[in-house]
Every structure is written in C-alpha cells, then in structure tokens.
Design brief:
Radius of gyration: 24 Å
Number of helices: 19
Shape: globular
Largest sheet: 5 strands, antiparallel
Number of strands: 10
Strand content: 5-15%
Structural class: alpha+beta
Strand order of the largest sheet: 1-2-3-5-4
Distance between the termini: 70 Å
Number of domains: 3
Order of helices and strands: HHHEEEHHEHEEHHHHHHEEEEHHHHHHH
C-alpha cells in the first residue's frame, strides 16, 4: 500500500506538474496584486458618468449633460460615428449645457475598459499571446497620442479630433501588463481603463463602412495625409520628446497583418509554402461548392477559378523556394517612421457632402491605439487591401506615385527623406504585397480559414455584413494584387531585393 501511495505521489507531483503548479501560483499572485491596484477610478461605461465626475475632471461650469450610447458598427451600409477599434470601446455622444463657450455643445466619449472584453475563445487568446498583443498598451497608446504625439499630426497638418479630456486609471509609464499564462488559461486581465472626450464631427463628416471599397478621391486624400506624417517623422522618432513613450515597433502590422516575423513559430508555415500542399489546398478550398455558396452570399467572384490566379500562386511558390527569400522578408522589420498603425477606410471620417472631390484637409483620422513605429509599405499595402477594390496594377501605381511625390516633396523639411529612394519604396511595396499573399496562402490558413470558417462567421454576424464581408474582401484584394504582380513579372527575387 505504501509503495502504491508513493508511486501515486510521484506521478502527481513530478517535476513537470510541480513546475506548472508553481507557475500558475505565481501568476495568480501577481494577478491578484494587480486587481487590487486601480489608483484612479474611472467610469466603466457611459451609464456610470455623473455630473460630479465631469465637473471635477473636465469643467465646473457644466450645468447638466445628456448622453446617448453608440455602437461601433462594422456592417455594410451602417455608419460608424467614431472608433471602437479592436478594443471594444464603449462609445457615446454627450451633449453639455453650459454658459462657458469653451465647452463644446456636443462631443464623443470613448471608454476603454479591459474587463469588458472577457472571452471564452481560447484560440483568440492564444494568438493574442503569441503575437504580443496587449490591449492595455494599445489603450494607453491612444491617450499618449492625444496627450503628446498629436503634435506630430498637427505639424503634418493631419486633422484628428480635438481633445477635451483624457484620463487613465494608471500612470501611462506604468501600465499594468496582462500575465500571459493567466490570460491564456482563464482570461484574467490586469485592470486598466481610459476615458477620453473628443470632438464630435458627425454633423459634417461620416465614416465609411468597414471593408467597403473607397473611391479614388478618398484614397488619394488618405495617401496625401499619411505621406506628410511619414515624411516629417522619417528616421526622426529618436529625436522627438513627444514620441518617446510610444511603442517602438508596430506589433499589429509586423506580426498579425504582415506576418513577416517568421521567427514566431505560428508563422513557420509561411516558410514552408514551397514545400507543403498549402497552395493546392487553397485552390481546392476556393473552387468547390462551399466556396461558391459563401462568395455568392457576399457578392464576390470565385477568383481562384481563374487560370492566371492559379499560375500566380504557383509562381509565388517558386519564388519562396529561392535561396535568401525569407531572409529578405525579415529585413523589412526595422522601423522607419511614425505610423497611424491601423490605417484603413473605417478609421477615416469623410465629408458628408460628396458632390465635390475630397480634399486631404477634409479628412479626419481616428483610432490611435496602434500608433507606433514601422515600415511605410505596411501602412499603404494594408490600406489598399482592406479598403480599396483592385482595378488594375496601373491604378495602384497611381496611388503609390501620388504618395511618393508628396513624401519626396518634404525633403527640405526633413533631409532624411532622401534616404528612402523611389526604387527602394517600390521594391518594398511589392515585397510586402507578396508577404501578405504568403500569409493568406500558407498551410495554417488553408487548413483553418477556408469556406467553412467563413460560413460559420456568416451565420454569426448578421448575414455576413461584419467580419465575413470585410475579411473575404481582404482576401480577394490580396489575391488579385498577387495576380497583378505576376502579370507584370514582379514575382522575381531579383526585382524584390
């Protein structure tokens, strides 16, 4: 009996089990410690906002207020007033009554409460941990932009909402981080909250539905705006005091959207696209009846039936097999300049009057949770894939040419701009488009994100007008741009070096 008990004891309390138990115990200790510490109490949603709170932290001259909660919609044909972003922010319109003319009559309240995002989706949490996503940092970044880094936008004459009040539950230099183990296993999050009151531009401007293609004037205006921001901050982020607290690299683009960081084991399948059956699986997935059904529902063609698309995919596979290709991809990770970080049509608010062309100064840029440093090509390629329907290779060139002409014109304001030649710019644009295609054609995507995945999502998001609508259009645009590269003989390692 004693031998049996001893055997069971050692089976239960072996080194591995003991190690896991110890790690969990330590993680719980630090989580409990963080939960006790919210130095500055803020409302968690619009309903908790009181007159006393506003008078104390904004202005004692506020006599009364009315508040109307908003929902950050992502569906086709539904306008979004202002950014909820990936944080699931609580949004509300607020109307003030005051004799003080410095207080606006109407404004937008945005509350980021990390506890509101509880999710039982283990896979999503796992990906978040592996990609280094911490929404506490994202939310703190937005406050930093409004408090400090907006000077970079103002200097570049990029319009962003006026700021009336920014508050955070913690010192922004001591933002609590989620414990990865506890977040992964139990969705435990470190308490952190931000509260922002910003300009309401909804009477004169409107947002563009997520995923819907923008017209030429809107794309041009967006590119002109961002070119000024990029140029004036090119290779100068170490020199500007107001930018030093921002994250030093853009996790969202580097690891999630672009996926060039193949050193992360989640992205290893990207490095094997020339060895495995990812391309064939993708073609099988997107040429069957299930694909036809979901693509028809969201009004998209079966592009994978196109022989030229098939040829482009095979050419991509050949490109990936060449020596030095992946090393070349990894060379595109060193930050160049300040990025908006989530640069797409949904984060632009355009004039309601569409009777005239949009001017660059008419555009209002919102959502700064991922503002940080990175590569110019990431910003532009992401915008095109997410928000601009593919017409032709030549049409895209017009946008890039317009961008670079604006960027280059700022050489007198920032001599460092000349370090980024047009040739370098275009090579990186094409390589980034290739990397995006690899990300969406690798085995992980082929196995897990096929027609069945999108059909399930379609049934969950009200007839596919949310994630399905935007996601499938993202995929569609990436593949069509790959086709454009192939037709123009750009899937050549010598042209991408």
């Amino acid at each position: 009996m004693g031998a049996f008990i001893s055997k069971m004891y050692h089976a239960v309390f072996n080194k591995t089990t003991l190690g896991i138990f110890t790690a969990v115990a330590i993680a719980i200790y630090y989580w409990l410690k963080s939960k006790k510490n919210m130095p500055f109490k803020l409302p968690s949603n619009a309903k908790e906002i009181t007159l006393e709170f506003l008078q104390k932290h904004y202005s004692k001259n506020i006599k009364s207020f009315k508040i109307s909660p908003l929902t950050a919609e992502v569906r086709e044909g539904v306008e979004r007033e202002d950014g909820g972003g990936i944080s699931g922010a609580s949004l509300a319109k607020i109307a003030f009554e005051s004799d003080d003319t410095s207080i606006p009559k109407n404004a937008i309240v945005k509350i980021n409460d990390i506890d509101s995002l509880k999710s039982d989706n283990f896979i999503a949490r796992f990906l978040g941990v592996m990609w280094g996503i911490d929404l506490n940092i994202f939310n703190a970044t937005e406050v930093l932009v409004f408090d400090q880094a907006r000077k970079a936008y103002d200097d570049a004459k990029v319009r962003i909402p006026a700021t009336y009040l920014t508050l955070s539950s913690h010192n922004l230099q001591q933002v609590p981080r989620n414990n990865p183990l506890l977040f992964l296993l139990f969705d435990f999050r470190s308490s952190f909250r931000t509260f922002i009151i910003i300009e309401d531009v909804s009477t004169t401007h409107k947002s563009w539905p997520q995923g819907v293609g923008l017209d030429k004037s809107k794309v041009t205006a967006a590119f002109e705006n961002i070119a000024r921001l990029h140029a004036l901050n090119y290779e100068k982020f170490a020199e500007k005091e107001e930018l030093k607290l921002l994250p030093k690299t853009n996790v969202w683009y580097e690891n999630v959207m672009i996926g060039a960081n193949a050193r992360n084991f989640l992205n290893k399948s990207m490095m094997n696209i020339h060895k495995d059956e990812a391309i064939n699986k993708t073609l099988d997935n997107w040429t069957n009846e299930a694909s036809k059904e979901i693509l028809t529902k969201v009004n998209l063609p079966q592009i994978c039936q196109d022989q030229v698309v098939k040829d482009a995919m095979m050419a991509l596979r050949k490109l990936c097999a060449q020596d030095g290709f992946y090393e070349m991809c990894l060379n595109q990770l060193e930050p160049q300049t300040l990025l908006h970080g989530d640069f797409h049509g949904w984060n632009h608010i355009f004039p309601r009057d569409e009777s005239k062309d949009i001017d660059k100064d008419d555009v209002v840029l919102v959502d700064f949770q991922i503002t940080s440093y990175g590569r110019i090509a990431w910003e532009l390629v992401y915008f095109l894939n997410f928000s601009v329907d593919y017409i032709s290779f030549e049409d895209d060139l017009q946008y890039f040419d317009k961008y670079y002409s604006i960027f280059e014109s700022y050489v007198y304001d920032n001599p460092k701009v000349k370090n980024y030649t047009k040739e370098m710019f275009y090579r990186e644009i094409y390589l980034t488009q290739v990397i995006c295609a690899i990300k969406w054609l690798c085995l992980v995507t082929a196995d897990n994100v096929g027609p069945k995945y999108w059909s399930k999502l379609y049934n969950k998001d009200e007839k596919g007008q949310g994630g399905t609508f935007a996601g499938l259009r993202y995929f569609n645009r990436i593949i069509l741009r790959l086709k454009g590269l192939y037709e123009n003989k750009m899937l050549d390692i010598n042209k991408l070096k």
